[in-house]
Each structure stands twice: as structure tokens, then as C-alpha cells.
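Reviewer 2 asked us to include a model.

Predict the structure of this chain.
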Amino acid sequence: MQFYAGAKFGRLTLRQRLRINPRISPTIRKQWLADCECGTRITVPEYYLIRRPNPKENCGQCPDLKTTKTKFNVEFRIWLMMLRRTTNPSHRSYKDYGGRGIRVCEEWSDQVTGFDAFLQHIGPRPSERHSVDRIDNDKGYEPNNVRWATPKEQAWNTRRKQRHARRTGEPNSDEQGRRAEPASGGHVPEV
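Predicted model (C-alpha cells):
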């Protein structure tokens, strides 16, 4: 395989070889400045262009290559961790989730269609501060029992505080009895 300015690797066109950095791993020392067909300019290690089985063939930002998983990457990672902590006994939080019998509903557990179904129900994350929360901590991740919640909202929705609220009859909220409602069929925007 020849490396020279103007050489094409998938959607990437090599422009200029960059200075070799002897202090980094041998596989990524030789780097090129490359232009993608979408207009993005990236720096790419020479090795990435020839590695098998997945050589680098685009910048990773091409709009026509984006999938739901890449458009909603943070939500995808949250969904993935939700699955892991409920199914993988090696996960550090398994004892608090899967070990307690908390499960992800069948519709959202499917590796192929589960993320799309989860995102369709809960919608995109409203802000960086929000994370997924179960409204009833004794139930699993299922429709009408999940929502996006801030750290403050989640702090009021713990097993300990729910037990206290049931025992005393006090509302389980910092806002005088206002109960959080489940996500009601979030909408995934067209992108």
C-alpha cells in the first residue's frame, strides 16, 4: 500500500505527512493530514488506514453515515450501561440492579431494536445534567417507569427515602408533594 499526498482511502484523501513523533506508540507515530469528502480535515495515523478488519475510511462525522446510535451517542451509552448493570454480574453496580432483580423490559433489551424503542419512549436527554431514573425503584426499566432526571431529583428518589415516605406518609419530594411523572412517549426529532 502506497502512502503519498493525494492517495485515497475510502472517503479520505491524504494531504500532507506530518512530523513523526518518536515518543508515542510505534503504530501511530506516522500521521497524515487528510480531507474527508464531507469537508472535514482530520489527522489520521498511517496504521489506521491499513489496519484489518476495520481500516479508517472516513472522518467519522459524515452526516450521511450517522445512525441513531451516533446521533444520540450519549443516550446510547446510557442505555448500554442500563443493560450492563442489570445483566452483567461483573459490573460494579450489578448488586444494586440485576442482583436485586431489576431488569430492562424485553422491548428495550433487544440488541438490534432496543435502543431505538428506548429512545422513542423517553426522548433525547434534556440537558447534560440529566440521567435516566426509575420512578419506582422497586420496578425495572420499563415504559412509564423511566424519566430523565437531574441529580437533585434523583437524590429524592432513593430506596431509603421511598421507604421513609411510605412509613411516615410524607411526600417523597423536595417540593411539597409534587410527584415526578413518567416520561410520556418522548419524541425523537427528525435529524
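The chain is about 25% helix and 15% strand. The longest strand covers residues 12-17. We have added this to the supplementary material.
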